[in-house]
């Protein structure tokens, strides 16, 4: 019933249905039901005209029209209606639709009008009021809390006003008799004290009062978040049970030697705890997929390195990928020192690695001689093939997409047969069968076999169907695999979908089809065959079979032959817990929540540009103490040229105040060649220069413990997380460090909040929470591609508490009933299936 197309609802019709589809994505009754109001207007109060105040709020008045009048204005005319009640008169004004209004609104008849009032020239007026006959108003189901639905300009212009939407909604409730299937289990309703689905839907659309509205909202938010969490947790469980991991049985010599002899400092308790968590993953039979969160300077690198040692101890290779060349280089140099002590071979691979060196690296990786590789996304290139990659670490995750994460998977050992390998196998088989079954094989070579009109039509239908699926663009149509042109081919999964004829012309043709499938399967492809009749009949069973396969394919390891490496993602972008639960719900999360001992909290101050001389004096004092200083300028894409000029102007003025030979200055910005950048960086790292003038290229990960001052120019132009990242470049040694935020006097309210937050706290999670509140979740790093934020009613920021409960309950339920097969979870299972079927959930999960 709820899947009925919206066109069938009384009062909708084809035109409105079209608009609803295009403008609001409402295709079915169900979609309409799920169009929740943005807000509600309290329409319990009626105003008299003499009670109106010039405050431009929404008011509701009962009265009648006494006359219409057209008034010329600058462009066109406006229609003015005189509206009167027993206390006075006011004007109703229309700028459009005069004809319709004059012929449809009745004079001297009681109306309820609703809208915002203007006060001008001693008179009240209401432009484009919502109007309803008093008689209808009294008879309507509409409650005193009037829902305001999401709308678009187009809908408004085409006459689908809020009132029309309300009426359509009423019609829906009438047709469905306001009975809706319960989607949560009785246990959940009981334990969470939730109202029923039917009551919730009724009260979200027609709230009887505030209290019931609140209950309805709570129930629906809970439900929404609950099902997202259920999906994520299931995904994670399926992952763990289905995806085999490389078993790291031992903690061996490398790890132990390093731990006992070369550990440069004592690990913090947090580092130890995280290492244990990682060790547990690696020892289990499942693939590790772990996110390691830790504030800047919390010491993630050494945890990553020691994890790499575990891989080596089990005869696997390990790699570490960083987002920038500078950072990769720095990691490499840090790790190189440790590797030398342990006699481990390690190399650096970036975009600027020379060809000869590159070749050597490739060879070393394939032969297994090279044990560790550090690099940028150059690591992802197809030419980089490992002998047996056991662990991939990704530093600063937000710079990499999910796609890149999955690309690393394919670099696991027993690498999936490459395309060329497959093709040569295929060729061999084709040759073999051409000899034994010449007729059938000949038939396959003639295009006539597949090029019938019927076949083409069936392919069109299926193509449309597949295009709507998750991972739609994975399928290539008419893909040529040697002799065969297959109907649909998914490279990544080595999956083929073939449309077969129900009735074959003759035995040769039948044999040809069978051979083709047989050959493809024996080469290692998965082949799904769907009879063309099933497609034309839109046969449910065959589509649901396909659906099952597609779901399986989506969650399955690309090929049983490869075992993906363990993955550890390290990020210094503190993601608020609530968000992490949703965005990284499919990853396990470890947190280093403790800084190494002896660190002094960085002192942060805000200074205006006019205090620059004081700031320079301070820099001079710090340099005299032997410290180093960063001065950072903003670089925002759109205004790159201007920013560059700011940077150069700044550099010149600094150079004037800090002249050689007493002072040396490094400069690093995005327009420099990598080699020059590197050279300048290195001078600073070695302490040859005291001041580093830079754009945000140094934002991520750079480690110079002797640097104690971070000056951020035009700090008001940076986002909170960026400011926090930048500040994290200092405070890495034992010395007291400082961060000075320079701004002009003109500051927006948000900038002020950002600056205040920075001077108030050093806690990344605290800062992330403020950031989330300021910017909303859409902008927080790492969430853009996740799509978790298309929530219908819940708010990821405000409803953190509900999210937590929902996640907890989802976990509980899956713990005691992992397959949701117990009778009392029937409603949950049904809803879950329904959601997967209608793909709602794919809107949430990338
Ligand atoms: P991040 O988590 O930001 O990547 P790093 O791994 O770069 O942090 O560590 C920051 C600095 O702290 C480095 O100089 C590192 O050597 C040092 N460090 C890490 N762990 C400890 C520890 N347990 N005790 C003392 N210093 C540590
Ligand atoms: Mg780091």
Task: Please give a quick description of this structure.
With 846 residues, the protein is an alpha/beta fold. The protein contains 30 helices and 26 strands. Strand 2 and strand 3 form a beta hairpin.
Keywords, please?
nucleotide-binding; 4 domains; OB fold (Dihydrolipoamide Acetyltransferase, E2P); 846 residues; binds adenosine-5'-diphosphate; Endonuclease, Chain A; DEAD/DEAH_box_helicase_dom; P-loop_NTPase; Rossmann fold; helicase; seven-stranded parallel sheet; 26 strands
CATH fold-type name of the largest domain: OB fold (Dihydrolipoamide Acetyltransferase, E2P)
CATH superfamily of the largest domain: Nucleic acid-binding proteins
Major beta-sheet overview: 7 strands, mixed
- Average pLDDT rating: 84
Describe this structure in words.
It comes from Bizionia sediminis. The protein has 846 residues and is α/β, with parallel strands linked by helices. It has four domains: 6-176, OB fold (Dihydrolipoamide Acetyltransferase, E2P) (Beta Barrel), CATH 2.40.50; 253-284 and 299-413 and 564-571, Rossmann fold (3-Layer(aba) Sandwich), CATH 3.40.50; 419-557, 3-Layer(aba) Sandwich (Endonuclease, Chain A), CATH 3.40.960; 603-761, 3-Layer(aba) Sandwich (Rossmann fold), CATH 3.40.50. Helix content is 43%, strand content 18%. The chain has a seven-stranded mixed β-sheet with strand order 6-7-4-3-2-5-8. A seven-stranded parallel β-sheet has the order 12-13-11-14-19-10-20, sandwiched between helices. It has a six-stranded parallel β-sheet with strand order 21-26-25-22-24-23, sandwiched between helices. α16 (419-436) packs antiparallel against α19 and α17 packs across α19 (507-523). It binds adenosine-5'-diphosphate (ADP) and magnesium ion. Adenosine-5'-diphosphate (ADP) binds next to α12. Residues 265-268, 271, 294, 296-302, 572, 596, 703, 705, 732 line the site of adenosine-5'-diphosphate.
